[in-house]
Amino acid sequence: MNAAQLKGKGKIIPKRRGLLLVVSAPSGAGKTTLCREMAHRVSGLQYSISYTTRAPRTGEVNGKDYFFVTEPEFMQRVRQEEFAEWARVHHNLYGTHAGFLKRTMDSGIDLLLDVDVQGAQLLKKRFPEGIFIFVLPPSMEILMERLRDRRSDAPEEIERRFRVAKKEIRNFVDYDYLIINDKIEKATRDLESIVLAERLRMTHADQNWIREQFLK
Ligand code: 5GP
After folding, report:
1. How far apart are the CA of 49 and the centre of ligand 1, in A?
2. Would the CB of 117 count as within 6 Å of ligand 1?
3. Is 171 in the pocket of ligand 1 (CB under 6 A)?
4. How far apart are CA 124 and CA 137, in angstroms?
5. Mean pLDDT confidence for 147-167
6. Can you give the pTM of this predicted structure?
7. Is the Cβ atom of 118 under 6 angstroms away from ligand 1?
8. 23, 24, 166, 180: least CB-packed within 10 angstroms?
9. What average pLDDT does range 124-151 have in this prediction?
């Protein structure tokens, strides 16, 4: 049970900070679909929408998939220290909004972030209590197939993403959990299990509530 919902006759009283769940994967591992699926499936879990200077792919919507901004606007936000982390990935800039992150976690909602390995490293320094999850495809061959199937990137871009993926995978040891995304349904269940188990950790429990209820 979410500690936020333990007491208060139907009233939600935030008793703990939201968890910070950071998901990284080489591009093409299916992480974005996975994260979005999760946010629909698990209540009290919010997907963090990043800022990016990348052009929208077909079907992507501003404010839903990303906040699409120009490079000058992005750099202005960097100077104003609006980002909890930001990084250049595949020629484009990506950043996580610090204010949104803080507000969401302060209100007791768990936050799911989809960031590259550089972003995850920065977040780990800033939020050592975060939960770091690495997603891999079943094989490098399947990764290549998935990158090609996306059809929205040019062949050179696909090749480059494939080379970068190899480098990114070297960072697997920095993560707490591993999910192999073979079938999306199974991978979603794996991620859901991580979220549900992490919510039950004693370190996240409202210890004052336990003392008041059972030890007085
Ligand atoms: P794509 O362009 O394929 O949507 O994303 C490319 C990469 O950027 C992915 O590895 C994705 O995780 C990463 N990414 C997306 N949002 C952020 C962010 O806010 N910060 C960082 N560091 N990486 C991000």
Report:
1. 10
2. no
3. no
4. 23
5. 85
6. 0.89
7. yes
8. 166
9. 92
What is the arithmetic mean of pLDDT over 154-167? 88
Average pLDDT of the segment spanning 66-95: 96
Distance, CA of 164 to chain centre: 19
Residue type, 77: R
- Check if the beta carbon of residue 4 is closer than 8 Å to that of residue 12: yes
DSSP string, 26-60: -TTSSHHHHHHHHHHHSTTEEEPPPEE-SPPPTT-
Looking at residues 5-20, what average pLDDT do you find?
64
CA distances from residue 183 to 29, 61, 186, 216 in whole angstroms, order as listed = 11, 26, 6, 49
What tokens were used for 126? Answer: 């800033």
CB of 114 closer than 6 angstroms to any ligand 1 atom: yes
22: pLDDT strictly greater than 80: yes
Strand order in the sheet with 20-24: 45-47, 110-114, 20-24, 131-136, 177-180
**Predicted pLDDT of residue 13:** 53
